[in-house]
Amino acid sequence: MSESGITKIGVIGIGTMGNGIAQVAAQSGFDTLVMDVNDDMLKRGMGIIEKSLERLVNAYEKSGGEKGITAEDKDAALGRLKTTTILADLRDCDFIIEAVPEIPKLKEDINKKIAETGYDKLLVSNTSGISITRLAAAYGKPELFMGMHFMNPVPMQAGVEIIRGLKTSDATYDTVVKLCHDLGKIEIPAEDKAGFAINRMWVPFVNEAIRVVEEGIATVVDVDKCTLCLGHRMGPLMTADYVGLDTMLFIANVLEEEFGSAYKASPLLKRMVESGQLGTKTGIGFYKWDGFKAAGINPDVERYRIK
Ligand SMILES: NC(=O)c1ccc[n+]([C@@H]2O[C@H](COP(=O)([O-])OP(=O)(O)OC[C@H]3O[C@@H](n4cnc5c(N)ncnc54)[C@H](O)[C@@H]3O)[C@@H](O)[C@H]2O)c1
Hints:
By secondary structure, the chain is an alpha/beta fold.
């Protein structure tokens, strides 16, 4: 029995975050049902999960059992994972985690539709920056709603920011904390203010790193090298490419709206999103990408200067 008392988890969206969340839920022993818009997305997402589990099996074999998981664990996790394109199929889950793109109206519509299916249990959003109180209102049962902000890549990152909306109940909060433990994660409680805790710090940091590039103070590679001095494992520009520059811009705009012009997105970040250069997901951002491997610097960025 899990600490949270939950047995079946629904995940909406099998993209960057959803596939990681689904993998971790299944690996942690939960029956897991993942929903996405079509079979192609589900097939792609399941392929990523299988490869990720396979890497863990290889790690187990290479480390003599010190790291990773056994081939039996992998098969058991895959056996617990089911997929669907029908939202109403999630009705009999005990807990639903929404991980669709960072578009307020899309998330609000999904919350309304989940409520219309008759689902009346806990619902959390993996939103990076949309007000939890606003999304809770769309669900119509705000006491059963929270933010659960997983970090990328979910199977590797232990921290999960957990955010109460204005009306989230104590019982919901307690269950979410327990679920973090069931998933082998560490909860980081934060309040429902723009950017919560992590992105309030992280997005201005990335934004300033981009300004350093666009003002010609340092190159992309040198900006990312600076973080070696800070003890970070990866530079801000490379990490932003993994997160998605559209997501970074969205959060920068949310921060500016709530806290003022000091949080304004840098012109280069806006230009990159306008030109569809969003990072790993489009094959080019600050770096050129060969899958998830950096393969050089984006020449458009090296050229772009604002005095
Ligand atoms: N990418 C990151 O590093 C990161 C980190 C933390 C939080 N987040 C947040 O997680 C959420 C998801 O981001 P992502 O990067 O995984 O996005 P993504 O674009 O990689 O994946 C989103 C998935 O949702 C699916 N989807 C779209 N509309 C849907 C619908 N109506 N019903 C069901 N599925 C639908 C898409 O087909 C896709 O598979 C966002 O709120 C984002 O801000 C992202």
